[in-house]
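Handout, section B. The chain below has 148 residues.
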Amino acid sequence: MIELEKVFSLFCDVGMSEPKFFIPYINPVTNEADYLPASDSGATDGYDEEELEELEARILNDPNWLQLPDRRDLGLGSRLALQFAEEYLKPADCDSVYNFFRHRGAYRKFRTLLDRLNMTDKWYQFQNEAIREALKQWLQANDIEFTE
């Protein structure tokens, strides 16, 4: 059985990164959560080669370790920001958010708008609740027992 808070913390720490520098894993049997650097990310630079090989062997050779899905697989990409805009922003601001996500730099513009509207804390609360719920659903769909 794995602790939901452990899965949530791991996902927030490394699962939300873009591009994907680290790959998060959980072991529900031992209640462990860890991550490996993505092989093509260049994130292996800070690791001792021997320690990295040991970590890879421990995670990749044990069938109890499961890779967490990425944020898009959990529906936590741009759709989440659009959902927040629809629920909490005025129609004109919501239209702006839709326009942001038609172009590059959308999240930067979105966060700037939230700062201007003093809605940043509300966004992070909304996002964290959505992440927790998505992770719960993923754990349940994969028959992984967890504690809250």
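Note. The chain is about 55% helix and 10% strand. Compare this with the example in section A.
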